[in-house]
Amino acid sequence: MNENLFARMQELRDLAGVIGLATWDQETYLPKKAEAGRAAQLGTMQALHHERLVDPRLGDWLADAKAATPDEVAMVRVLAKERDRAVKIPSALVKALAEAQSHALSAWREAREEKSFKGFQPHVHKLVQLRREMADAWGHDGERYDALLENYEPGMRVNRLTPVLADLRTKLVPIVQAIDARPPPKRIFEGKTFDAEAQWGFTLHLLEAMGFDLEAGRQDRSTHPFTGGTGLRDVRLTTRVFPHLPLSSVFSTIHEGGHGLYEQGFAPEHDRTTLAQTPSMGLHESQSRLWENIVGRSQPFWSYFYPRYQDTFRAQLGDVPLSDFLREVNRVERSFVRVEADEVTYNLHIVLRYELEVALMRGDLQAADLEAAWNDKTRDLLQLEVKNINQGVLQDIHWAYGEFGYFPTYALGNLYAASLWKAMNRDIRGLDESIGNGELAPVKNWLREKVHREGFRCDAEPLITRITGQGLTDDDFVSYLKVKYGALYGI
Fold first, then answer.
1. What pTM was estimated for this model as a whole?
2. Is the dihedral of CA 59, 65, 70, 71 positive or negative?
């Protein structure tokens, strides 16, 4: 490969890493009075990255590239696609979006403090307009949302995604209704307080057990849990800790730990290249959802970790049997907050956001009407009345970043995770027994070999097909839910 091309590829990855670090800092330790300065800095860095990507010389190097290995062929393919999309977007628009994201993030935090959509609404309006401009610049066949989906789930389109989500909704509703008719689990945490520092220590214990390398990463706290960093040797996770909601820190950490293991698991020889990244956010979310739900809410997992959790909170959980705890961690109920939602109702939260985003991009819904539309869809999909806006339209950070098109990847991640789990059990004998002994390395190692080290050698669905023998399907996910919750709820 041309030396100039390879050097530019590494330079672009380095810039992206610094942008990621500045964004992580913005969410964790940035002083309040530094927010305006950080908005300008991120705007400058994003514009610089864009200018280096659209540089005509890079176009010439890519056109003349002579790749010597299959990996180099893949590197050139991925970088060429990134550049082809980037050249359609003016640098001024890239900078405007980066600055708008920073200002919107600050406004979102203030809106949550004030429990009012009013101050955040103009920022959503601006971000919607900017994303519409970008979608039109990229080009589409009538659905702006298709151009945004391409950012997160290459090849996915509204005309394929809508039927997938509609079919999933149709299959989930009867399961939710059947569970509604059964006696609910005991509320074992009600009225109890769980020390924040003790929670924090337990989350670090879980990360180590999962195999997350804390010498190549770290965990901090943020309003909304996320994973970021600069590269596979510097992966930053965040979680959140609530004294009265102890499971929030547990499952936020396991979820982000799944993301973090993926980021640490790219092949070392791909570091600072276009292959050290996921081919789709649906695949990335499959890693977090597999760890958080399929492993992290399972009976084998807690048969090992619950005695240790009890020891951490002896006064609160000492007389609570494992059976009651398992029913609590797998409680199914219609709830307001997506990140706290159970496996069965979770995808209904995604349908809600997806339908709103598509309407925003089509111009059928305006930012000024977003709060009311959210409340209407919550009533329709979850039969709940929103009374606290922080549990409504202000709960997610994604729109503060202008990340329209991201939410569907969570649902796709659930589907991919179930198919990967089925394949993993086919390949590894005694997997439940290993997990029950606290041995999580077989899970990590299988995912590392099959998924992580592949990076962006190929697109997500072909990779899933190679691993599992089939492409995107909801069959494995729905079957998994029926078996698990059939046993838990006797349905």
1. 0.93
2. negative
474, 420, 419, 465: which is closest to 447 by C-alpha?
420
Rounded CA-CA distance 87/79 in Å is 12
Residue 234's alpha-carbon distances to 43, 186, 218, 264, 490, in angstroms, are: 23, 41, 8, 8, 45
Distance CA 97, CA 110 (A): 20
- Crossing angle of helices 56-63 and 70-86, rounded to 10°: 150
3-class SS shares of the chain: helix, strand, coil, % to 5: 65, 5, 30
Q: 241 burial class (0-12, 13-18, 19+ CB within 10 angstroms)?
A: buried
- CA 235, CA 229: separation in Å to the nearest integer? 5
Q: Which amino acid is at 69?
A: T
Q: Are 134 and 89 in contact (CB under 8 A)?
A: yes
Q: How many CA atoms lie within 13 A of 450 on its CB side?
A: 25
How many residues appear in the chain?
491
Buried residues in 413-439 as b, exposed as e (16+ CB within 10 A):
bbbbbbbbbbbbeeeeeebeebbbeee
Q: Which residue in the list 256, 292, 454, 461 is annotated as catalytic?
A: 256
DSSP 338: G
Whether 333 is catalytic: no
DSSP result, 195-217: -HHHHHHHHHHHHHHHT--TTSE
Does residue 219 contact residue 200 with C-beta atoms inside 8 Å?
A: no
Per-residue pLDDT of the chain (491 residues; tens, 9 = 90+): 889 999 999 999 999 999 999 999 998 999 999 999 998 999 999 999 999 999 999 999 999 999 889 999 999 999 999 999 999 999 899 999 999 999 999 999 999 999 999 999 999 999 999 999 999 999 999 999 999 999 999 999 999 999 999 999 999 999 999 999 999 999 999 999 999 999 999 999 999 999 999 999 999 999 889 999 999 999 999 999 999 999 999 999 999 999 999 999 999 999 999 999 999 999 999 999 999 999 999 999 999 999 999 999 999 999 999 999 999 999 999 999 998 899 999 999 999 999 999 999 999 999 999 999 999 999 999 999 999 999 999 999 999 999 999 999 999 999 999 999 999 999 999 999 999 999 999 999 999 999 999 999 999 999 999 999 999 999 999 999 999 999 999 98
The amino acid that residue 90 corresponds to is P
d(CA 316, CA 247): 13
Tokens linked to 189: 């945490």
